[in-house]
Amino acid sequence: MFTSVLMIEKPLSPEDVDFVTTLHGEERISFVVLMQPRGDQADVLLRAIDDVAMGELADAVREGDEPEGRDARVPAEVGLEYSLRVLRQAGSEAVGQVVDDHPLDRLATVVEESGADEVIVLTAPHYVEEFFHRDWASRARHKVGVPVLKLFAHSE
């Protein structure tokens, strides 16, 4: 069975589930899902800049309204449970956890402990972070000894 560590920042959409569960054809996939709560102030600024760059000014203004710290954990836990359920319904094995601190260090540990074959970073586009190679996928490539695939999450 193929094992993928899936890093996400929001619950999986049906399109995301279909995408990640069919990446390897008919091969069965086991997922270890890492969900990072939103709310880090540096992330808020970078997301707001991305929103402005994409012409989404209303979204840029709302970035500061997201829950922070402990308040961000509950929505992350709910989103993680939902994501695990839909992955299982699609026929995959799935376990996961919310990652509060040092997500890339936790990623490296999970990859090693699970014997993962790859890491999939499923995220919305973060153009500023990507330009400076500060996005999760770019940084993960320096932390883990397996291929890191960056995919853009479905958005409405």
β-strand amount = 15-25%
Molecular shape: globular
Helix-and-strand structural type: alpha/beta
Rg over CA atoms: 15 Å
Write the element-wise H/E pattern from the N-terminal end onward: EHEHHHEHEHHE
Percent helix: 40-55%
Low-confidence stretches: 60-65
The oligomeric state is single chain
- The mean pLDDT is 79
Characterize the largest beta sheet: strand count, sense, and whether it forms a barrel: 5 strands, parallel
Distance between the termini: 32 Å
Number of strands: 5
Strand order of the biggest β-sheet? 3-2-1-4-5
Task: Describe the protein in words.
Helix 1 links the parallel strand 1 and strand 2. The termini are far apart. This protein is globular. The longest helix is centred in the middle third of the chain and has 20 residues, at 70-89. Strands 3-2-1-4-5 form a five-stranded parallel β-sheet, with helices on both faces. 44% of the residues lie in helices and 20% in strands. It has helices spanning 14-21, 41-53, 57-62, 70-89, 103-114, 127-131, 136-140, and strands at residues 2-8, 29-35, 93-98, 118-123, 148-152.
Keywords:
single chain; alpha/beta
Task: Quickly describe the structure.
This protein is 44% helix and 20% strand. The chain is α/β, with parallel strands linked by helices.
